[in-house]
Amino acid sequence: MSKVSKKSLIATAMVGALALTGSNIAAADALSDLQNAEANIFKQSAKSQAKINTLYEQTQELLAEYRNTVDEAEVLSGYNDHVQRMIDDQKANIASLQKQINGIDKIKQGVVPLMYKMIDTLEKFIDLDVPMNIERRKERVENLRDVMTNSNVTTSEQFRLVLEAYEIEAGYGTIFDAYQAEMDFNGTTLTADFVHMGRIAFVAQSLDGKRSWLWNNQSRAWEELSDEYLKPVKDAIAMARKQLPMDLTKLPVFAAGAE
């Protein structure tokens, strides 16, 4: 090995040291660059994660909104089905009512003549019946005829009034009633008290209580009674007016089939 001077060795050592120092500096710069790159990547990753989190939250909100929308749609669908069923039912009712309305004219064509016939029959019945409250009953028939020609009265109301008149007439068969009115006896008009027990007995008495009469429905005339009936007839009138308590009394009646 050749000998080298100290000066040359020192120079060589200094060159080596400088070369090592330069290598260390280069390595440090590379590490710093790597660290900066990693920091930048981490920063970018954090931003990306934040965006992902935001998107996830938005997605969850949209999903919840979608589910609510689906639920509402199902509810609305069920309600719409319910409403449709109601509409269908209403249409069916309307169709039924329209059918009935269309038939009203035909019903009237049958009911109106029937009512006129019922009124005529009622009038004939009153003319042949025991004539208690005769003026009031005839007036009721005339009122029915007026109602039938009144355009402001509905057919149903007309029919109700006709039936009501029939019910009133039926009630005379069970009423015990007394009233005051005029009567015709042998061409003479008299004011008297009348009392009837249904249609079984129909008697009258003068206001002074001195004369009494019995209605004979077969002869359609009044027949004067003997004095023995003065008190019974007077008592019957008082009982009908609730001036005496109800009690047994003797009133004349015509036997069934008597001439």
Question: What do these coordinates show?
Answer:
- The protein is of the alpha+beta class.
- Among the domains are: 108-171; 176-240, no CATH class.
- It contains four helices and five strands, in the order H-H-H-E-E-E-E-E-H.
- The chain has helices at 6-128, 134-148, 155-171, 230-240, and strands at 176-185, 188-197, 201-206, 212-216, 221-224.
- A hairpin with a 3-residue loop joins strand 2 (188-197) and strand 3 (201-206).
- The longest helix is centred in the N-terminal third of the chain and has 123 residues, at 6-128.
- It is rod-shaped and about 160 Å long.
Structural class category: alpha+beta
Largest sheet: 5 strands, antiparallel
Could you tell me the mean pLDDT? 83
So how many helices? Answer: 4
- Shape label: rod-shaped
Q: How many angstroms separate the termini?
A: 189 Å
Helix content class: 55-70%
List keywords for this structure.
single chain, 259 residues, alpha+beta, five-stranded antiparallel β-sheet, 5 strands
